[in-house]
Amino acid sequence: MPEAEQPQGPHVPVLLAEVLAAVSPGPHVRILDGTFGAGGYSRAFLEAGAHVIALDRDPSVLPHVEALVGDFPDRFIFVPGTFSALDVLAQPHAPIDAVVLDIGVSSMQLDEADRGFSFMREGPLDMRMSREGPSAADLVNQLDAEPLANLLYAYGEERKSRRIAQFIVAARADAPIETTVQLARIIEKAIGRKPGDAHPATRSFQALRIAVNAEFDQLVEGLFAAERLLDEGGRLAVVSFHSLEDRIVKRFFDPAKGGPAQSRHLPQAEIRPLPWTSVAKAVKAGPEELARNPRSRSAVLRCGTRSDAPARPLTYEGLGVPRIGSAA
Questions:
Q1: Is the dihedral of CA 218, 224, 225, 227 positive or negative?
Q2: I need a labelling partner for 78 at 20 to 30 A (CA). Which of 88, 147, 171, 293 fits?
Q3: 56 assigned to a ligand binding site
Q4: Residue 40 annotated as binding?
């Protein structure tokens, strides 16, 4: 969603009532919160009586962790790490009854100018959730025009990616691009801005953030890790915030959505038991939540229940994961 519409202040967990209904927290229920953030979901699960194991790779979440450790010392455990490895990280605390993933950047991260996620705030062009590895500034200043354009197109669906990349390369020839506002102004100069439209840098910033944090790889690996971790009857709830993520989650739960149509004239492929049952229809925020929390506008919740079928080997096939090829 356009950053100008993002709420200020602490992160507000979206679709909270719907997530609670999906995972049914209560006494003796063990929930893995794979994307802890500011702890909104974890606190709600704990207040409902559940035991919570929380993961996050962002060291800035520690004050929120300490608050929940103080309030729920016997039922809350925090494990630093990425949700792509959630099965390994959570195994010492198994069995787990439900896994919850809230994908993407939080309002808390957007509000911290020094993290570099937001083009609405002056800050270093960083975007690293773990504060490790190459930053957005490294990509912007080091990639040649063609691979940069391909990245913006594949991960941000930016149709004017070639022009933006050309303007970036021209600008950095004079001086490195080091801040969020610098980059946002270059993009606005490249493609202009119409009154009432989202900021022209929206898609490019999304693409850079996804690339810096390997978000699509993290998502795919996390989904299959949850499939390995959960026993029959376990529940997985995933909240995503843009169409590229939602497509991956949708096809993960229902592989037939991403597979090629099978001709009735050919021998029929073997039908394998599906690892997920009771896959609910996508849920979006209602009018009341939209009014009090604009961030929920783009949120989509999908959830399913683990069957007794064996976990599948990790594969990207059929998931519609964007790959960097050539820009339009």
A1: positive
A2: 293
A3: yes
A4: yes
- The total of structural domains in the chain comes to 2
CA-to-CA separations, 83 to 56, 101, 134, in angstroms, rounded: 7, 8, 20
Domain that holds residue 28: 3-107+215-306
How far CA 304 is from CA of 107, 236, 282, in Å, comes to: 26, 6, 11
- Give yes or no: residues 99 and 65 share one domain: yes
Element (DSSP H or E) covering residue 228: helix 215-229
CATH number at 207 reads 1.10.150.170
Per residue in 283-325, pLDDT (tens digit) is 999 999 999 988 888 999 999 999 999 999 999 999 999 988 7
Q: What CA–CA distance (Å, rounded) separates 64 from 10?
A: 11
Q: Binding site annotation covers 155?
A: no
Say which residues have a Cβ less than 8 Å from residue 270's Cβ, sequence separation at least 6: none
What is the pTM for the complete model shown?
0.89
Residue 86 lies in a domain: yes
Cβ–Cβ < 8 Å for 190, 160: yes
Helix, strand or coil for residue 74? coil
Q: Say if residue 97 is in the same domain as residue 30.
A: yes
